[in-house]
Amino acid sequence: MFDHFRSRPRRSAATAPTTAIPVSELSIYDPIHFGVDENGVRVEVTLAGRNLLPGGEPGSGKSSLVNTIVAHASLSADCRLWLFDGKLVELDQWRAVADVFVGNDMDLAIATARELQHEMDIRYAMLRQVGRRKIVRDDGLDAILFVLDEFALYTATYGSKEQRDEFVRIFRDIVARGRAAGIITVAAIQRPSADIIPTSLRDLFSYRVAFRCTTDSSSDIILTQGWAKEGYSARTITPEQLGVGWLLAEGGIPRRIKAAYLSDDDIRAVVAVARHLRGHRAA
Ligand SMILES: Nc1ncnc2c1ncn2[C@@H]1O[C@H](COP(=O)(O)OP(=O)(O)OP(=O)(O)O)[C@@H](O)[C@H]1O
């Protein structure tokens, strides 16, 4: 339906050049492998049409989960990668396959977030024209994975107060309205606190993962007030349990998971395949 809007033709393994590594591409509409639960059962999450908030102490495993998600998205020819990496090291390996890559430049972060907001508005206008509410898999319009690692660097650290406020304003709009327009937001948060992630913003993320936290209240800030009292607290995760977290999905009961992990070599290998699938587009 929206074929004229795609700037890049969909490619498949069957139509890829013969020099391409023979691997079939994924779709961002497919479930993403997150890891296993405490019974060893595979945990998969479909992120299309959703937002995800991973939070927890430094070194608890947030970026590793984000890498797993970006890996899936990079192998999905129907997904563009808009990566904001405030620390410039967490997502840097994906730069070669990112459509957009923003580091610690606050002016660029605001301008790029505005661009994404504009893209969202265009998509809403297109949906209105055809009397539809949301973009779906077969519309022929790429989804956008919008990743911020680390969220608070853009909202509480870099730039002036005016810049940070402006960034938060645009970010909130994208998180609130983006899902129907095919924009999936993943925002990683260190040291969760109510001033960094107010409840009204947190609640726009229907999937959340609480990695190790130092207090019940910071665990509840990620999940929802009250879960710690029920026994679902990321405070119980020890520093040795890297990549362990509580996954809360759309109002269900938190599930303890051990996230999958990609080493730097694994990521390099995925990037090599993704470059073929994505036709070497780079940010
Ligand atoms: N699922 C996992 N399995 C095994 N090891 C892991 C896993 N997740 C993370 N680790 C280990 O923990 C280290 C820190 O993880 P990661 O960088 O994801 O933490 P983080 O929460 O993003 O930290 P920061 O907030 O400082 O960026 C990794 O370099 C890796 O060695």
From TrEMBL:
Is Hydrolase set as a keyword in this record? no
Domain named FtsK: residues: 29-220
Does Lyase show up as a keyword for this record? no
Record's keyword terms, sorted: ATP-binding, Nucleotide-binding
**Which InterPro entries does the record cross-reference, listed alphabetically?**
FtsK/SpoIIIE/SftA (IPR050206), FtsK_dom (IPR002543), P-loop_NTPase (IPR027417)
Enumerate the Gene3D superfamilies for this protein: P-loop containing nucleotide triphosphate hydrolases (3.40.50.300)
Q: What Pfam families does UniProt report for this protein, alphabetically? A: FtsK_SpoIIIE
Q: Where does ATP bind?
A: G56, E57, P58, G59, S60, G61, K62, S63
Write the protein's name: FtsK/SpoIIIE domain-containing protein
Q: Which organism is it from?
A: Haloechinothrix salitolerans
